[in-house]
Amino acid sequence: MFSGTTYPKLDDKGRLVIPAKFRELSEGPIYITKSEDACLAVYTAAEFTRIAEVMLQARMTEKNVRDYVRNFMASAELQVPDKQGRIAIPVYLRKYANLERDLVMVGNNNKAEIWSSAQWESIQAEQDELFANRDGEVIPGIF
Questions:
Q1: 38 CB contacts (<8 Å, ≥6 apart)?
Q2: What is the DSSP secondary structure assignment for residue 98, as one 8-state letter?
Q3: What digits encode the pLDDT tens for the residues 57-69?
Q4: Phi and psi of 116, rounded to 5°?
Q5: Helix %, strand %, coil % for the chain, to 5?
Q6: Stretch (H or E) spanning 49
Q7: How far apart are CA 118 and CA 69, in angstroms?
Q8: pTM of the full predicted structure?
């Protein structure tokens, strides 16, 4: 499980050093792919395989399912971190997530997410207000 927030930077070659907080991601092959809200998701190979297997069970007769699975899988890039724990983020993924030098990497349960610093700050400003003022149950039986 991944949690917490870090503030890494992209180098001039589009590489990211995986922060120590997410060390598990630098210990073997990982997948980086598009995620919702214009960020990138980073999965361990085992978790990505589990998700891909679940997707095989999806109703492929529904166009929205086909479109989602296709986009998710087509953008998935296998990366093997180097000895310094760096991964290369392909240009098309950097473009999708509007990534420049300053990033935010957050743990989100079964994955880590990579956000542009500006996008994260904008979303968090809105979400912090909503989070602080929730008045109903969001996840039944938990919160």
A1: 96, 97, 98, 119
A2: T
A3: 998 899 999 999 9
A4: -70, 145
A5: 40, 30, 35
A6: helix 45-55
A7: 28
A8: 0.90
